[in-house]
Amino acid sequence: MEYTKADLLEAKRQIDSTLHKLEETIKTLEAKEQPQRYRSQITLAKNRVKAFTLANSLIERELLHL
Fold it and tell me: How far apart are CA 32 and CA 51, in angstroms?
């Protein structure tokens, strides 16, 4: 599938926004009184950060080849 530069830039913008929200969520959950109670949510959020970071890298690589 072919993507335009505009498509890739918009996807990157959306991913950056989601990454910011996830990072804030992680901070909030880790700052709770009993963060161990939120271990699964923290792990899920951290795994999503890794996945979105990887996606961002792939988008950036693709943008370099346009």
Answer: 25
Residue 1 confidence (pLDDT) above 90: no
Q: Model pTM?
A: 0.91
In angstroms and rounded to an integer, the radius of gyration of the C-alpha atoms of the chain is: 15
Distance, CA of 42 to CA of 52 (rounded, Å): 15
Q: For residue range 22-57, what is the model confidence (pLDDT) as tens digits? A: 999 999 999 999 999 999 999 999 999 999 999 999
Taking a C-beta distance cutoff of 8 angstroms, is the pair 53, 15 a contact? no
Q: H-helix or E-strand containing 1?
A: none
Half-sphere exposure of residue 12, counting CA atoms within 13 Å on the CB side?
15
Task: Report the distance separating Cα 54 and Cα 31, nearest Å.
Answer: 26
